[in-house]
Structures are given as structure tokens and as C-alpha cells.
Amino acid sequence: MSQLNSLFSYLSKCRAHSMSMGSAMASVKSAVQSLDPSLPTAECRSFVLDAIDRFAEKMEFSASAIAKLCLTKINSDDTVLTYGSSELLLKVFREAKDKGRTFRVVVLDSDVSPTGLRMATALADHNIPVTYSLYDGLSHLLPTCSKVLLSCDGITSNGSVAAAAGTSGIAMAATRANMPVLVCCETFKFSRKVIRDSLSANERGDPSLVAAVSGISHPLLSVVNLLHDATRSEYISAVVTESGIVPPSSVAVVLRELDQ
């Protein structure tokens, strides 16, 4: 375990620790701790590798199951608002298109980290009508949409959603407009931790990107680029997981079921 901990520590230095990383590390640790010390090294190695493969298979299954569940929420003639880029949501939209749904997607993007352009291009390549805009187009485009579909980096036990910076603003605006806000999240991204604000657990990006967008430069000015924010549970209508569609308040219940 001491060797594993040193390896996990190295990975955390390469990339800031995320909720899904924590789940993957916990899965490997659990497999190692369940080993019989009397087993030959080759058998132990094979057992741990099988556990890693099962976790990877769970990731693939989760994405496919979520895409199928979202078919019950994406109807023909819908206009779905999303934010940034997400492989999971791209799979969801492709699945809906392949099943014959006729819908449009509005992709909002960040000024600082414009990953949504990649998402919009991929949707257009799949013959899905798409509108692309930066974040400041939210107030203009939101009234043209029928629902909001978002991805996230993780959800804590109190139902707070950790996602790309800007997500909370979209969720709050949609809720105040009486528009459903759905978050797609695999259960391995559920965390037993509790976050109540965007500062308790976050990741810093390149501050020069913020300075370049704002045009501000001063030797006494410190620029911070926070990559994530926290969206409170009251701004989320439902969470779409491979286990079903649940309210954010049920995240703690799902975690208890996973433990069993």
C-alpha cells in the first residue's frame, strides 16, 4: 500500500486530484487489500489487472447507459443548451440523432478556455444542427431553448455539482426561467465529500489566459484562473446516471447502495 500511495501521489502531482481519479484509486486499493498474502505474485498481479479492466468496462457501460436514458428526455423539435465540450454529451447527442430525434443544440463556450468549439464542430459533422456562442450570449440564446443538458467533473453527497467554471451561472439562469436542468454523470464520479462553494476544492489554470482575454496587465496584479465552480442542488432538476435518473438529493442514497 505504501508503494501504491507513492504512485497515486505522483499522479496527483501530474494532474490535480479529481473525484473520478479518487474512485479509480479507491478501486485499485480495494483490489489490493482483498488479496490473500499467500497467493503467488503472478496471481495477485492478474487479479489486480482484472479489477482495473472491470473499472474501465464500467466507464464504457456507464456512458452507453446514460446515452440511452437521455433518449427519454430529448424529444423531437427540442433545442438543448449545453456548455463547453464533453465526450459523454457528444455520445448522448449522437445516440439521439441516430435514433431519429430531430433536435437542435446550442453550445455556449468560455472566453478563457474555448473547448466548446470542438464540441460544436463534432455535432455539425454528425449532421446535428448547432448554434455556437460564447458565454455572454446566454441571455439572448436561453429563451430559444427548451432544456439544459450539462456534464460535470463530479457530484458530492450533498448534491453539489463540480463542473467547468460558468456552469453554475447557466444552471441558475435556466432555473429562474423555469427550464429543466439535467446533469449527466457516471456514478464513479460521485463523491462522499461535501463542497459548498467554488473555493474549497478547485483547480488553477494558466493565469495568462485570463490576462490575455481581459487585456489587464500590471506588476502588482495577481490573476487567478479557476477551472471549476460549484452548482448547488436546487439549480439541478435531475442527474442522469447509468443507474437511472435521480434528483441530486439522492446522490447520498446511491453512494450507500454502491457500498453495499
From TrEMBL:
Keyword tags: Cytoplasm, Initiation factor, Protein biosynthesis
Check the record and name the Pfam families matching this protein: IF-2B
Q: Which InterPro entries does this chain map to? A: IF-2B-related, IF_2B-like_C, NagB/RpiA_transferase-like
Compartment(s): Cytoplasm, Cytosol
Q: Which family does it belong to?
A: Belongs to the eIF-2B alpha/beta/delta subunits family.
Subunit record text: Component of the translation initiation factor 2B (eIF2B) complex which is a heterodecamer of two sets of five different subunits: alpha, beta, gamma, delta and epsilon. Subunits alpha, beta and delta comprise a regulatory subcomplex and subunits epsilon and gamma comprise a catalytic subcomplex. Within the complex, the hexameric regulatory complex resides at the center, with the two heterodimeric catalytic subcomplexes bound on opposite sides.
Q: Highest lineage ranks of the organism?
A: Eukaryota, Sar, Stramenopiles, Ochrophyta, Bolidophyceae
**What name does the UniProt record give this protein?**
Translation initiation factor eIF2B subunit delta
The keyword ATP-binding is annotated on this UniProt entry: no
